[in-house]
Fold each of these.
Amino acid sequence: MPARSRTPNRTFFDRFWPQVAAAITGHRAGAGKDILPLLRRLRVKKGARVLDVPCGYGRHSLALAARGYRVTGVDISAALLAQARAQAARNRLEITFVRGDMRRLPYRGRFDLVINLFTSFGYFGDGGDAALLRAFYRALRPGGWLALQMAHRDWIMHNFRPRRRGRLPGGVVLEESTKFDFTTSSAHTTWVARKGGRGLRGQTKLRFYSAHELRRMLAAAGFRRIQSFGSFTGAPLTLDSRWQLHAGRKP
């Protein structure tokens, strides 16, 4: 997940997220979690080099490697990377997993595709987020694509509730308390996960971007042929789209 920063996000992704990531992503990704239709649309062929950043416990890295893509996964969490490496070994998949800060990617012109998925964007302020897009751009070879997916701000606004509670797979009860700053489109959320009498608590601050803001940021970072969708299958982006997906090409 997102790299360390001087905010509550650091503690959240160091301590809270590694213990609940699989339950939350498995529940919220839904039926449209398969990224392969997007890759076919962008004509990213098998054998292409893919950078999954942040890769978390390897949900997409594993799926893409199993289908013939050459995958590198980068994440700041040692715990999540250990999960990813263990699963790759069980599946006999060759994936390069690297621990690192996604804002300081060392790659230049190396990948055919960079993926940043499941709202792993919006944690570093407007300037930091813009710099992150430039890091993704540098990592791509000419002709390569960035695919960025995050929660759709318009859907969030239409369906906003300050408190949410639900039961996730594995018996985890998740509670979220959110204060939304409408002047900055930033959500300050306290998360509490409970299972078997044990409780975990974490906090995040996340900037939600509208579709036109993200498209403008992608263009400013150098991306062209920008496309926007409401799902990996290419559904149009509408008010009812929970997710927004943007793809941009490096000339």
Amino acid sequence: MKKPLLIVGGVLGVVALAVVAIVVVQLLRSDDPNLATEAPLIAAPTTAAGATSGGSTGTGATGVAPTPSSNDGAAAEALPEGVREFVIVSAESEAKYVVRESLRGLKTNAVGTTSAIDGSVFLTEGGLADAAESSFRVDLSTLKSDEGMRDNFIKQNTLQTSRFQFAEFVIEDVSGFPAGYVEDTEVEMTISGTLTIREVSKPVTWLVKVRQLGDTLTAVADLTITFQDFGMSPPSVPIATAEDEIQLQIVLVAREGA
């Protein structure tokens, strides 16, 4: 009886080790989404003498701050009166995806990020400017997670970034823009428009938190889509299969004259 018991014990030990190994791999592969919950804070603007200028106390002017004078540069001169252009600062911005995947039956998070974002947002005191197109795009070929093999598979097979390098979003409508905005106050709104990935364009609506102070605009925007929405199949390899749902988050820092 001892030999069969030893064999059974050995098999159970191997199974236990295999389970532990799978759990360890799952923990190593599962990223913390670390999603932002508010628009980035803005350092108070200063005057030439180094003193803090208006808006930081919450008593700023109603609406988006006044348009800079023509002395502020050629870019400002080219804009219609009352329109301000906030240019996205890539080094301070980030695009992120979060996808749930099944690793041998265990759920993990796949998280990829990039700071390769460019674009502009055109605003007036009343909201989105009609005189110019507000949009941004993300260079999908620069997305990076903690797993190089995953990144290569997604870029080569799912996103096909050698053919479709960019995802682009064109803003068409802003809902919830406050009639009387107090600078450096975070407000919630929705931004609707057209998202294009792999030459497939779909109407989408982002949930956005925004704040503006002086020449700086910051925002965090969240959106949930699926691979199938844009003609893609969820990534799948022998040891891992992704779910269809994708969480997207864009954290933007944009400045006038950037």
Amino acid sequence: MVSLNTMVLDVLDNMSITLCIINVYHTQPARGHDLHHILCHEPDDTIPTAVVGDLNTHSPMWSLPGHTPSSWATLFTDWMGANSFQCKNPPGVLMWVGSRETDHPSILDLVLANDLVCYSAQLGDVTVSLADSLGSDHATLIFDIFPLDSITIIPPPAPSGFKVDDELKDSWVKEFIMLLPPGLPYAPKHCTAPLDLTGTPSGHESGAQESLDESLNLFNRAINEASRHTLKPNRIPDPRGARWWNDACSVAHTLARTTSAGRE
């Protein structure tokens, strides 16, 4: 891929490419386009790759309604699909406003990322800023780049619930029964009342009727407290503690944890 208007930047880690950024400025000729070097290029699908820059191309995929698609727009979007690139621009946000009344505000500057970049979450959200454009009539595209190895140390959400242990069944049942307030119609007679009975009836003899919501809340509270007193909370096992864990496992672990939902 050779062009005076294209720059390739490889982000390395121990001499391995972790991210390839292809910066493009498309100088549109009087007729046709000058993106042949891009359309003939097949990026390595094993390397996270982003194409950024002024593409000077209108396409229904990102342009505002009313803009006539560029004659090469289909060729370009077909190239994107064949190489698994997605447009990461915020939808509908203008990139070029022009200075003449006849100018039509457009979306011409793009950030395209292949599937590996999206799965590994190496690019942060793209924002558009006219204030940072240094006097240009094109807005600035701003995004953060996260090193691949930094993503693995992001703690996953803490799991909820408790580990079920059949050997602790009798202890759990005993604790649960003792925590049920005596005012509940299903509570055994020998239950003890919880320490905090604010807003709850003192017992059957009071004649007060518990609402369904209050009864359910007290019932759920007894389940949670009995579990907390007798069972161990769920924890996420750290697979990196295995003796066979290596860098390839770390990469696979990161991709699995950061992938979006869906078949892909």
